[in-house]
Amino acid sequence: MVEKISASIVPAVIALCGVIILLSKKPLFDSFIGGAKKGCDTAVKLFPTLCTLFCAVSMFSSCGIADALAGVLTRLGIPDGMAAFLLMRPISGAASTAMLADIFAGKGADSPAGIAASVIMASSDTLFYVIAVYTAAAGIKKTRCMIPAAGVAMVVTVAAALLICKLWF
Questions:
Q1: What is the dihedral of CA 118, 84, 152, 112, to 10 degrees?
Q2: Residue 127: CB partners within 8 Å, gap ≥ 6?
Q3: How far is the C-alpha of 107 from the C-alpha of 20, rounded, in Å?
Q4: Domain for residue 112, yes or no?
Q5: Alpha-carbon gap, residue 39 to 69, rounded angstroms
Q6: How many Å apart are CA 44 and CA 38, to the nearest integer?
Q7: Per-residue pLDDT of the chain (169 residues; tens, 9 = 90+)
Q8: How far apart are CA 72 and CA 69, in angstroms?
Q9: 84, 99 Cβ separation under 8 angstroms
Q10: Is the pTM of this model over 0.70?
Q11: CA atoms of 42 and 63, how far apart (whole Å)
Q12: pLDDT at 38
């Protein structure tokens, strides 16, 4: 019963929106074209930022700095797979998701590393991607304190996640 209701909610909402739009007597096609134009303008405005970000992530992964930093974190007591995951999480969502899958495959989803990585994944975001895209979309030019503040927030989030997982599990 619940499955049938949940499966019919999305089509019902779409149908309701269609009925409301038809009854509103607004120029439907003109509104659609205007929204599509704004979306294309936003995509064109974001393209240089995203291209730069993708190149920076590729260079960070290829040049060896990520491996050197992971080695430092490993010497500090963080397991090898977790160290690479912690470095990649603020930079790339897709890469950190792949690393999370590797942690699950290698150590198990119920292992301490799997649980900690899951909590970190759920409680943090790809801060460089978010900052790059949102500041470019909003036209913000002065980002002096944004990256250091986001970095501190990321470190606190990761430390809290590791501490909570260590105490709880």
A1: 30
A2: 90, 147, 150, 151, 153, 154
A3: 51
A4: yes
A5: 39
A6: 10
A7: 778 888 889 899 988 887 887 888 778 778 878 888 999 998 898 888 888 888 887 887 788 887 888 888 888 877 767 888 888 888 888 888 998 999 999 888 888 888 889 999 988 888 888 888 888 888 888 888 888 988 898 889 888 988 888 888 7
A8: 5
A9: yes
A10: no
A11: 32
A12: 92
Which position has the token pair 């990649």?
88
How many domains is the chain partitioned into structurally?
Answer: 1
**Domain assignment present for 39:** yes
> Looking at the domain assignment, is residue 3 inside a domain?
no
Contact between 70 and 87 under an 8 Å Cβ cutoff? The reply is yes
Q: 68: domain range?
A: 25-168
Residue 128, in any domain of the structure: yes
What is the rounded CA–CA span in Å between residue 23 and residue 86? 51
Asked if residue 136 lies in contact with residue 46, where contact means CB atoms within 8 angstroms, the answer is: yes
Residue labelled with tokens 């409680």? 123
